[in-house]
Write a structure and sequence with these properties.
By secondary structure, the chain is mainly beta. It is about 10% helix and about 45% strand. The strands form four sheets. A five-stranded antiparallel beta sheet has the order 3-6-12-9-10, with no helix packed on it. A five-stranded antiparallel beta sheet has the order 4-5-14-7-11, with no helix packed on it. A two-stranded antiparallel ribbon has the order 1-2.
Length: about 190
């Protein structure tokens, strides 16, 4: 009888130990740190130019075969705003809104870009809580050759929070041909902290 009790006691202890170990070894609730939260991050689908998932004023967005390393077949470009033109200025000609993950995360946004005869081109990340702006992070596009740009920020978010990614093509100099700013290979990842 004592032998059976010891075996049952040992089995119960083993089950309890393995259960606790499984709880301690469980993975975080968020996505893998390499999961891109953006839709259509390279502006193409099955080899065709695409703006799927992006909110875009299509009269301002153009497609190009000029792409960064490993950029696939397509990138987008925008002509810089010319203050002497009759065309209205749009500060967010292309954007994508993402619902944040509940909890505390470090968000890493990157994109490839280059600017040709434009100034003030940028990529921005806006953070919203209940549709009220709570922060803005921006990086200026300063290179005339393809270069990668980064924005990294942490956010403790609730169900009502979102991020909005915006690209702006900058401004062209008056009395000169319109410059262009190119964008491609966008990525937004989140890592729980």
């Amino acid at each position: 009888m004592i032998q059976i009790f010891k075996k049952n006691y040992f089995a119960l202890f083993l089950i309890l130990f393995l259960s606790l170990a499984a709880v301690q070894c469980s993975s975080p609730t968020g996505p893998s740190p390499n999961t891109n939260l953006l839709k259509d991050p390279s502006f193409e689908n099955n080899g065709n130019a695409s703006l799927t998932g992006w909110n875009a004023y299509t009269s301002f967005i153009n497609f190009s075969n000029d792409v960064p390393p490993e950029g696939g077949k397509w990138s987008i470009f925008m002509y810089g705003y010319n203050p002497l033109s009759a065309q209205p200025i749009l500060l967010d000609p292309i954007n994508q809104k993402i619902t944040t993950l509940k909890g505390s995360y470090v968000y890493s946004f990157s994109f490839w870009s280059k600017a040709d005869s434009t100034t003030d081109a940028y990529g921005k990340v806006f953070a919203f809580r209940n549709d009220s702006l709570i922060s803005i992070k921006s990086v200026a596009v300063t290179d005339s050759n393809w270069a990668q740009y980064f924005i990294i920020d942490s956010l403790s978010s609730t169900d009502a929070d979102s991020l909005k990614i915006i690209f702006f093509g900058g401004a062209s100099y008056p009395f000169k041909p319109a410059g262009k700013t190119y964008f491609d290979l966008c990525s937004l990842t989140a890592k729980e902290f």
